[in-house]
Amino acid sequence: MEALPTAVGSRWRVEVVERSPSTNAAVAERARGGETEGLALVAEHQTAGRGRLDRSWVTPPRAALTLSLLVAPQQVPPARWPWLPLLTGLAVTDALAAEGVPAALKWPNDVLVDERKVAGILVERVERAGSALAVVGIGLNVSATREELPVPTATSLLLAGAEVDRTRLLGQLLDAFARRYDAWRDASGAGVRAAYAARCSTIGRQVRVELPGADPLQGVAVGVDDGGRLRVDDGRREHVLGAGDVVHVRASGAPG
Question: Are residues 219 and 128 in the same domain?
Answer without folding.
Answer: no
